[in-house]
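Human
Can I borrow your eye for a moment on a structure tokenisation matter? Give me a protein, with the fold worked out from its sequence. Write it directly below this note and I will take it from there.

Assistant
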Amino acid sequence: MWALCKKELRQFFSNLTGYMAILLFLLLNGLFLFVFPETNLFDYGYATMDKFFELAPWVLLLLIPAITMRSFADEFKSGTFEILQTLPLSRFQVIFGKYIAALIVVVIAILPTFLYVITINKLSTGGIDTGGIMGSYIGLFFLAAVFTAIGVFCSSITSNPVVAFLLSAFSCFVIYSAFSAISNIPAFQSGPGYFIELLGIDSHYRSISRGVIDSRDIVYFFSMIVLFLYLTSKNLLKR
């Protein structure tokens, strides 16, 4: 499994595509946080990373599908999936190897954003809320882990990487924000709105971002990861 994971990492960083995806993620966040007037952190008058944690899920919503779209789609397209099946690996090990490789790439993209924290902390006089920021990073990691599982699942549906990208981006968008939007419909606000909101990622991500690590949120994220990896396994079984 780890051999497959290392192979996926080598393949991702063997050309400029992998580096460009990470650089674009950092560039977009940097522009939003330090250049564009509407979201500029310096306009707040106090040290905060709240705007970053509001923007990051939307940028990851495009970055992660770009990372995962080739996971299985390329294997189907090139005919190497049959070769992959001959390796002494179980179906779960193949899925998990590809999933971990994609997640490592996402973590590599997120790690340099700690420079934002250091920069803001140096520039501010009163310092920043380190505990709250660590909680937000934990929430961002779990959100990225779920997006990655969704991306791997969507890549197992089709042999076209572009279709896999579009399916993944749309699915991540729906699961992240659609349930919160539906819960705000007046007909649902009085009763089922709260439970509908809990089905989406957004409410759990915001909960952890407050710095409170609730076991219900952790269970939700792990359940979503397991669900989409299980669905990936069912897709591969059909092939």
In short: The radius of gyration is 19 Å. The longest helix spans residues 130-155. The CA atoms of residues 77 and 159 lie 5 Å apart. The chain has 13 helices and no strands.
